[in-house]
């Protein structure tokens, strides 16, 4: 199966302009025979919305999302937006669209509150991390800071996900001889998760400037052996593709069956011991 990442620079606060950009990349992906296209975190609105959040947030039943879902007849895709949860507040969400409808939504669990980030001021935390089926593939979605937490990745690994999809908005902080310094950390993280948990990993980062912050890109797709199959450039909009196969997962399991040796009860017992008096 061919998958792709649309490394885009969203138009800040402009839903219609971003819909047009999504359509453009969906058409490009279809031309390239892509079966799954992944957009970055908050791809439909931009990231640091602050007081614009109430205006731009949508419920899962909103007509805008129904219109977006209609584009998934020819390929699956993941797009990000601020979600209004009636009576509860707002969430940073990414939805998986499949065969004309919204199949799954993940709400960002780990909301950063350090440095330039203050997500908890405007958004509430997601409360679950669930794998789901799309055809023969079992998938999971983590949003940006989620993937920095091993327990979030472990939750999907224990559910035997074949691939983790990670829409992100990781900023540029400093540049070294090899490019953005943060990229080395992200590459090591993606490769180690893939190799250790016998899964594919798609890190879909955005680019562009927003409120004085630069997002660096460097999106990448890794395989169950920890190899980078495709990597985007820094700072530029781009579509990258990679072919993934269930056979590679089976080959990795035959080579090193860590995935089937894991015992979730050990993890549960560790938490139980923590709370006992």
Domains (count)? 1
**What is the third-level CATH name, the topology?**
Nitrilase/N-carbamoyl-D-aminoacid amidohydrolase
- Spans where pLDDT lies below 50 across 5 or more residues: none
Give the overall silhouette.
globular
Oligomer: single chain
Instruction: Characterize the main sheet.
Output: 6 strands, mixed
The averaged pLDDT comes out at: 92
Distance between the termini: 51 Å
Q: Going by CATH, what is the homologous superfamily?
A: Carbon-nitrogen hydrolase
- Tally the beta strands: 16
Descriptive terms for the model:
single chain, 8 helices, six-stranded mixed sheet, 29% helix, Nitrilase/N-carbamoyl-D-aminoacid amidohydrolase, globular, alpha/beta, 16 strands
Textual characterization of the structure:
The chain is an alpha/beta fold. It has a single domain, classed as Carbon-nitrogen hydrolase (Nitrilase/N-carbamoyl-D-aminoacid amidohydrolase, 4-Layer Sandwich). Helix content is 29%, strand content 29%. It has helices at residues 15-31, 53-56, 63-69, 150-158, 181-197, 246-255, 258-261, 264-275; strands at residues 2-7, 36-38, 76-85, 89-98, 101-107, 132-134, 137-141, 163-168, 175-176, 179-180, 200-205, 207-210, 213-216, 220-222, 228-231, 238-243. Strands 5-4-3-2-1-16 form a six-stranded mixed sheet. A six-stranded mixed sheet has the order 6-7-8-11-14-15, with helices on one face. The chain has a two-stranded antiparallel sheet with strand order 9-10. Helix 1 (15-31) links the parallel strand 1 and strand 2 (36-38). The longest helix is centred in the N-terminal third of the chain and has 17 residues, at 15-31. The radius of gyration is 18 Å and the shape is globular. The termini are far apart. The mean pLDDT is 92.
């Amino acid at each position: 199966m061919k998958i792709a990442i649309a490394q885009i620079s969203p138009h800040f606060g402009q839903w219609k302009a971003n819909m047009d950009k999504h359509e453009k990349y969906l058409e490009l992906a279809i031309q390239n025979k892509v079966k799954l296209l992944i957009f970055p975190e908050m791809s439909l609105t931009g990231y640091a919305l602050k007081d614009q959040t109430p205006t731009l947030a949508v419920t899962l039943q909103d007509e805008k999302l129904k219109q977006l879902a209609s584009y998934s007849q020819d390929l699956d895709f993941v797009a990000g937006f601020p979600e209004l949860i009636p009576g509860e507040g707002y969430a940073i969400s990414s939805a998986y669209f499949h065969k004309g409808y919204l199949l799954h939504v993940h709400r960002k669990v780990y909301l950063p509150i350090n440095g330039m980030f203050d997500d908890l001021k405007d958004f509430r935390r997601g409360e679950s991390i669930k794998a789901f089926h799309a055809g023969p593939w079992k998938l999971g979605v983590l949003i940006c800071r989620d993937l920095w937490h091993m327990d979030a990745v472990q939750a999907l690994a224990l559910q035997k996900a074949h691939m983790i999809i990670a829409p992100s908005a990781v900023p540029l902080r400093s540049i070294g001889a090899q490019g953005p310094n943060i990229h080395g950390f992200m590459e090591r993280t993606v490769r180690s998760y893939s190799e250790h948990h016998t899964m594919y990993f798609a890190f879909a980062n955005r680019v562009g400037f927003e409120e004085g912050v630069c997002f660096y890109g460097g999106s990448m797709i890794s395989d169950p052996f920890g190899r980078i199959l495709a990597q985007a450039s820094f700072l530029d909009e781009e579509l990258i593709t990679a072919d993934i196969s269930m056979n590679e997962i089976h080959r990795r399991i035959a080579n090193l069956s860590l995935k089937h040796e894991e015992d979730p009860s050990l993890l549960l017992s560790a938490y139980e011991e923590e709370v006992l008096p």
